[in-house]
Design brief:
Blueprint: H1 19-31, H2 34-47, H3 51-59, E1 66-67, H4 68-75, H5 79-91, E2 95-99, E3 107-111, H6 113-127, H7 138-151
Antiparallel strand pairs: 1-3, 2-3
Helix pairs in contact: 2-6, 3-6, 4-5
């Protein structure tokens, strides 16, 4: 269920420079900055893996199986789409599909050694803050983190 607080703030012609609009523009500029994304794009180039399966690696646990429906939930997509992603990961030798140990109806995905190594690299590249964060003090980074946590739609 979508809460009113999760809906976008309408930005009309007389509000394009509102503080909320400026904050959102700055967050997007930082997160979409090519320099900040360079390491991740290098992994895309080196692995030859399409972006969608690589995105799946970002949310897979390194050392434990995960049910396919849980992967779909983490990615915000349909179960049928996850089947295609996992097919690609299996063809590349990055993951294997197994039956759940206690529920034969459930399929789980587990990374292979090669998949684990690529996932570690991709997660590190995706989670490393851009150099511009060096302009903030540790206290400012903590404050920014705390403010952004308030905006997290998954918070309770």
């Amino acid at each position: 269920m979508t809460r009113a607080s999760d809906l976008p703030i309408p930005v009309t012609d007389d509000r394009p420079n509102s503080p909320a609009a400026e904050v959102w523009q700055r967050i997007r500029a930082i997160s979409h900055n090519p320099a900040a994304m360079a390491a991740f794009h290098q992994i895309v180039q080196e692995s030859g893996l399409p972006l969608a399966p690589l995105r799946a690696l970002l949310v897979l646990p390194l050392d434990e199986p995960i049910p396919m429906r849980q992967l779909a939930k983490r990615l915000g997509c349909d179960n049928s789409y996850v089947t295609s992603l996992v097919d690609t990961l299996e063809r590349r030798g990055l993951a294997v599909r197994r039956q759940h140990p206690t529920d034969r109806r459930v399929k789980v995905i587990l990374l292979t050694d090669e998949g684990r190594e690529l996932t570690k690299r991709a997660q590190l590249a995706d989670n490393t803050p851009p150099g511009s964060f060096s302009h903030l003090s540790p206290a400012e980074i903590t404050t920014l983190r705390d403010l952004l946590r308030k905006l997290d739609p998954t918070r309770a």
